[in-house]
Amino acid sequence: MAKVISARKAQGRATGYHVTNAGRAVALSLAVAMGAGVATIPEVAFAQSYVFNSVSIEGNRRVEPGTILSYAGIARGDRVSAAELNDAYQRILASGLFETVEIIPQGSRLVIRVVEYPTINRIAFEGNKRIKDEDLAKIVQSQSRRVFSPRVAEADAQAVSKAYEVQGRLAARVSPKVIRRSDNRVDLVFEVFEGGVAEVERIGFVGNGQYSDRRLRRVLDTKQAGLLRAVIRKDTFIEDRVEFDKQLLRDFYASRGYVDFRITGINAELSQERDGYFVTFNVEEGQQFKVGEVSVTSDLSEVDADLFASRIRLKRGKVYSPALVENEIARLEKLAVNEGLNFVRVEPRVTRNDRDLTLDIEFQLVRGERIFIERIDIEGNTTTLDRVIRRQFEVVEGDPFNPRAIRESAERIRALGFFNKADVDAREGSSPQQVVIDVDVEEKPTGSISLGGSYSTANGIGVTFAFSEKNFLGRGQSFSFKISNAAESQQYGLRFAEPGLFGRDLALGFQLGYSETDNLNAAFDTVTGIFQPFLEFPVAEQSRLQLRYTLDYGHITGVDQTATDIGGVVKAEALEGERYDSSVGYTYIFDSLAKGLDPNTRYRFEFGQDFAGLGGDTTFVRTNAKAIAQTRVWNEEVTLRATLEGGALTYSKGDSRVTDRFLIGPDIMRGFTYGGIGPREIGGSVDDSLGGNFYAVARFEAEFPLGLPEEYGISGGLFYDVGSVWGVNDVSKAQAKAAGNTIVSTGFDARHVIGFSIFWDSALGPLRLNFSEPLVKRKYDEAQNFNLTISTQF
């Protein structure tokens, strides 16, 4: 510890300070008892008393004499004892303003001699690499040009050490050092030894029978140390994180009906090398309960209980989850507001049936307290505008107060992704019938800039620049643009969206796109553009609807009409020149995850259509649909997923071109290149992929652990895909025939693919490696046995 700290501790023991009387040194009894006596104290000395007509204060420069006298508490003319002089000395010393204090009685004159603590000239940190100086400066209380305090410096050292402990560096040591300067100034230097991180070498469980250690480890925020420990920081042992893990385990079991689940203890054993922990959770799972009888009751005369009962979605036999009950309460209380029944609250009463392991749930409608919202105070939002936060509340000042609605608003604020912290609390307002909602947030960066290079055999060397901001100008708006410039492809994109138009859950935005491609594998080039404004809003609890207008531009260029290696269809379509398509459309989306009713099952449905003919050169209907279902089996160790999607393009004016028809790639059907299946014009040296007016693909896959340590983030999967692209118009067939070529695969002709996947949660993001083998293909198809993609979760 620093020399000055040691001195301060000695001062706290009253060591080295004395009171003298009539030239005879009288040391404090405490100092004598600790072996630091200055002189022997006769017992009669403590019986003496003093009367002072004057007080002389020496050595003070900054502190006023009156301030020192107020600490001493000795008035002129009062008779004081030696014990009272000792108390005065202790009070002056305890002020923390002085390095040394002496109280010397000289007859009727009292001399108080002090040495003030120096002022801090500057504060510095040495040895720190993991935490920057400016971040450490925010932690310490000591400040430049303020009086130095050993007690504060000691507390600062402990606070800095705590900051390193939060990062898992339990061996970190911080020592404050003082460097004396002129004019009673000092430099305060914190010498930091950061040490290494204490990793979690192993996480185990005792008492779990329903779920394996592997499954439970995926629930925890803390991870085991592995080969990627230099990148993955979730394997650092942090006590606060372990406490959070306890809550994650409770929520996991509670959402699966284990209402009696308990964590009986956690053992964290430090390895002999003191660089790793072995963490064991001792649990008691209990029995799984399901929902029994569900009913709604009310003693309120104005409430129709049958109406509320008809809105209940919770059914008997479903695995019990607190989230299910909360969703029903929220739905019933919202119904009460819509029916004009303010201050009606829903109180669930759960009756346990141990014989059949069910829980009967009675939703009782009761009269709540008449409390109103006085105001909503928002603090901490240095960038985000107040209105962005306020629109997450479904209530305003003067509305009835509903604690559950406020909690839901808090969750919506956190879900924005704009803040590191978002605390929402309610306190009593100007009267017991008024409450004030306090919102305290802490901003975090919401924008990103990326600059990268790429190379592909199709597009050559390219440079990509992208910018995105999801809280543009603090208005909660999303804004992004991207520029990609490769040797054979140039793409430009811009997107903007306002998610809270008129303060409601109403999104308004637009996107612009322009691209030029020089196809290395085809004897033609394309130029396309799009302008698409859209409006999106919820239509139910789990579904949304998007309305849009689309203006498309397409142009097939670079076609040599005399070339023999290009088919007649592309030549004829290129002669048509530029084309503009004007359409209006919609997309309906239903997602069961919107309410998270079942943690193991999810399904999503999308259906959209675009109707062209509102101006433009063509009239058509484009239809797209996708349905996805996912569930976990075998104690949630294996994930099964099925996807069905398709599209149809029908024209009543004009005909489809290669830039309009469906060309699918491995992101839709694995095992084939982009445009690798479907109608093709073949003849001589001609082999052009034309795309089709229809496509349908079904994908089935299973994802499962490979037995590798979970910290590697690697799992495996098997998949089976079946699908087809088909359909061209008669005009295209005639154009191909006129050129002496043939269009193959015009009818539905299913291809089948099997394969396996490797999923890797890498530092670059979730990657997926697909190895595939077509079971059924045609000789003119273009197979692809391997592809690497970003793994996405629907």
Give a structural overview:
This protein is α+β, with helices and mostly antiparallel strands. It has 14 helices and 38 strands. The protein is elongated, with a radius of gyration of 38 Å. It starts with a helix and ends with a strand.
Defining traits:
794 residues, 14 helices, 18% helix, disordered N terminus
Briefly, what is this?
The chain is of the alpha+beta class and 794 residues long. 18% of the residues lie in helices and 44% in strands.
Mean pLDDT: 85
- N- to C-terminal separation? 56 Å
Characterize the biggest β-sheet.
Answer: 16 strands, antiparallel
Count the E strands. 38
**Helix content estimate:** 10-25%
Gyration radius (Cα, Å) is 38 Å
Task: Give the class from helix and strand content and strand pairing.
Answer: alpha+beta
The number of distinct helices, counting runs of at least 4 residues, comes to 14
Query: Which term fits the overall shape?
Result: elongated
Q: Regions with pLDDT < 50 over 5+ consecutive residues?
A: 1-46
- Placed side by side, the strands forming the largest sheet appear as 20-21-22-23-24-25-26-27-28-29-30-33-34-36-37-38
SS strand fraction: 35-45%
Topology record:
Layout: H1 3-12, E1 18-21, E2 24-27, H2 29-33, E3 49-51, E4 54-58, H3 65-72, E5 79-81, H4 82-94, E6 98-106, E7 109-116, E8 119-126, H5 133-139, H6 150-166, E9 173-181, E10 185-193, E11 199-206, H7 213-219, H8 239-254, E12 262-270, E13 276-284, E14 290-298, H9 305-310, H10 322-338, E15 344-353, E16 358-367, E17 372-379, H11 386-390, H12 403-415, E18 419-428, E19 434-443, E20 447-456, E21 460-472, E22 477-486, E23 489-498, E24 507-518, E25 525-540, E26 543-557, H13 568-575, E27 579-591, E28 601-612, E29 619-633, E30 638-653, E31 680-683, E32 686-689, E33 694-705, E34 714-726, H14 730-738, E35 742-744, E36 751-762, E37 765-776, E38 786-790
Parallel strand pairs: 4-7, 8-10, 11-13, 14-16, 17-19
Antiparallel strand pairs: 1-2, 3-5, 6-7, 9-10, 12-13, 15-16, 18-19, 20-21, 21-22, 22-23, 23-24, 24-25, 25-26, 26-27, 27-28, 28-29, 29-30, 30-33, 31-32, 31-35, 33-34, 34-36, 36-37, 37-38
